[in-house]
């Protein structure tokens, strides 16, 4: 894998940009704050949910981080189709890898919450099923990558599948659950984490949690990308 | 207008090739008929109470038959054939002609399959057969738009069958959920107003799929 002089130059630029530390510290402080405040600050008393409403701080930000990472991946897939650069392809695949971690964490935190409020880890709720299917979509993307040996061809074909699959994931996660009855908070007339019960105390923790986890997700992705590019450089030498 | 002309010729070519060998249509028809017959032998009859199973079974059979039928479109062409058509025509024309041809193929296939299915499981027929047929037509269109593009991707990746299934299932599931819901409305005999949402959503998803396919195929078609 040979990266030209221009490629090396932009690689170095990437290091400099990603190595800035302020947003990493900011993200870590936000996540530590939400972990402490999320468990200690007061929450509204709602029937059924009770204290489990605190899961909002830990479950929902996972999905936000996943969506942001998958959007980054689609962005770099589109970019790699026109630029044909290996770096863009690496960014696309590493943000999918990081996004899948957050998707799985979202499923696990949701399932643990469901055990205590619905009685079962997995109760075939549409939201659970659709989230699982959209994770499958990205596993299929990774398997497609593994099946092609030639690097440029792999970059091109997997980018095409990634872009083709993204609108379907949006339909799965945001449109279909609205057409079906679900037990999930905010659906089918259940008390949701909506404006009326997301009171100001919860907002003070929820919004920082989302921002913090998105930053942490981006950090995970940038570390993975840097490890991958160092490995590639070693192989080239 | 150049595009319309190219599409017309390419569809004519596809139909002519199929008419000469009659391999895909006969193969998939036999596949569907024997699957339905196997289901009939294992269920013997599905009465009024089991109409949900009746519906689910039909869509499972259609899903696998259409994967087998549509995936042929790109996978069975040799490299030389593909090169030849790519020299002569634009990528959009190739994709549109394949999609239209697959839609025609699927329409014939699903119509015959539905007829045979109703004949075999004669204990139960959906009360609103016209709406059920609308669902079947929508299904043929959606299956062919999605599977045509996925089969193009799978054929470029080089290892056909298994990859085709892995790549297409997560994409087709949202469409399938809408289709089953629409078909269930027909099975329950609900008035048509209740189904406009699903029909609209299916149309939107299809337009979305065709649009992204048209945008992406020019990057895919040439090695």
Structure description:
- The complex is a heterodimer of chains A (237) and B (223).
- Chain A has seven helices and no strands.
- Chain A has helices at residues 5-18, 22-40, 56-83, 86-117, 126-147, 151-179, 200-236.
- Chain A is globular.
- The mean pLDDT of chain A is 83.
- Chain B has 223 residues and is an all-alpha fold.
- Chain B has one domain.
- Chain B is 85% helix and 0% strand.
- Chain B has helices at residues 2-21, 23-43, 51-75, 79-88, 91-120, 129-157, 160-188, 196-220.
- Chain B starts with a helix and ends with a helix.
- Chain A: Keywords: Cytochrome c-type biogenesis, Membrane, Transmembrane, Transmembrane helix.
Class per helix and strand makeup of chain B: mainly alpha
Helix-strand topology string of chain A: HHHHHHH
What's the Cα radius of gyration of chain A? 20 Å
Q: How would you classify the helix and strand content of chain A by structural class?
A: mainly alpha
Largest sheet of chain A: none
Q: What's the quaternary structure here? A: heterodimer
Relative strand content of chain A: under 5%
Number of strands of chain A: 0
Count of separate DSSP helical elements of chain A? 7
Uncertain runs of chain A are none
Number of helix segments of chain B?
A: 8
Number of domains of chain B: 1
Biggest interface, residues from each chain: A-B, 26 and 30 residues
Helix residue percentage of chain B: over 70%
Largest sheet of chain B: none
Would you tell me the overall average pLDDT of chain A? 83
């Amino acid at each position: 894998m040979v990266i030209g002089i221009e490629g090396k130059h932009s690689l170095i630029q990437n290091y400099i940009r990603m190595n800035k530390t302020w947003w990493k510290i900011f993200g870590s402080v936000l996540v530590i704050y939400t972990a402490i405040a999320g468990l200690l600050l007061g929450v509204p008393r709602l029937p059924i949910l009770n204290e489990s409403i605190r899961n909002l701080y830990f479950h929902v930000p996972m999905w936000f981080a996943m969506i942001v990472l998958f959007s980054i991946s689609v962005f770099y897939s589109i970019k790699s189709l026109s630029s044909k650069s290996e770096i863009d392809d690496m960014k696309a695949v590493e943000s999918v890898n990081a996004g899948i971690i957050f998707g799985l964490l979202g499923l696990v935190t949701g399932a643990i919450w469901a055990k205590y409020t619905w009685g079962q880890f997995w109760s075939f709720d549409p939201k659970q099923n659709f989230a699982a299917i959209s994770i499958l979509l990205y596993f299929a993307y990774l398997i497609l990558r593994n099946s092609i040996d030639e690097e440029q061809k792999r970059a091109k074909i997997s980018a095409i599948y990634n872009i083709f699959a993204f609108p379907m994931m949006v339909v799965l996660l945001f449109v279909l659950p609205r057409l079906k009855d679900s037990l999930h908070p905010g659906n089918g007339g259940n008390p949701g984490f909506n404006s009326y019960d997301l009171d100001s105390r919860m907002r003070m923790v929820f919004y920082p949690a989302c921002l913090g986890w998105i930053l942490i997700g981006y950090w995970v992705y940038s570390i993975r990308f840097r490890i991958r590019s160092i490995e590639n450089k070693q192989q080239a030498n | 207008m150049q595009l319309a002309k190219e599409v017309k010729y390419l569809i004519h070519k596809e139909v002519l090739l199929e008419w000469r060998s009659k391999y895909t249509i006969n193969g998939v028809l036999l596949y569907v008929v024997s699957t339905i017959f196997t289901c009939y032998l294992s269920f013997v009859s599905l009465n009024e109470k089991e109409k949900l199973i009746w519906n689910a079974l039909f869509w499972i059979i259609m899903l696998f038959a259409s994967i087998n039928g549509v995936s042929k479109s790109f996978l069975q062409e040799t490299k030389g054939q593909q090169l030849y058509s790519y020299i002569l025509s634009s990528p959009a024309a190739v994709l549109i002609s394949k999609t239209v041809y697959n839609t025609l193929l699927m329409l014939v296939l699903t119509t015959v399959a539905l007829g045979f299915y109703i004949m075999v499981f004669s204990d139960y027929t959906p009360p609103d057969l016209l709406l059920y047929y609308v669902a079947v037509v929508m299904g043929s269109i959606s299956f062919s738009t999605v599977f045509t593009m996925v089969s193009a991707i799978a054929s470029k990746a080089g290892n056909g069958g298994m990859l085709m299934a892995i790549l297409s299932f997560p994409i087709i599931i949202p469409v399938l959920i809408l289709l089953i819901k629409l078909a269930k409305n027909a099975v329950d005999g609900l008035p048509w107003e209740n189904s406009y949402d699903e029909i609209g959503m299916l149309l939107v998803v299809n337009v979305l799929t065709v649009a992204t396919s048209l945008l992406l195929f020019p990057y895919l078609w040439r090695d």
